[in-house]
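A brief tutorial aside. Many learners find it easier to grasp structure tokens once they have seen a single protein encoded end to end. The record that follows does exactly this for DUF3149 domain-containing protein. Read the sequence first, then the structure, and try to relate runs of similar tokens to stretches of the chain.
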Amino acid sequence: MELWKELLSSYVGILSLLTIVVAAGMVGYCVWLFVKKAREAEEAERRASGRLAAR
């Protein structure tokens, strides 16, 4: 608990915490975007292979 008080008692601590939160958010967004694009590519590949098999 003492560490939290020390961290939030100065501008440097607050900026450090903000930096950590923003960096974690960016990592989360990049992972979400990667998974989304991978699923879209897989779905497009399935659709394309389905069309080729029907011909």
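Self-check: The mean pLDDT is 90. If you spotted this yourself, you are ready for the next section.
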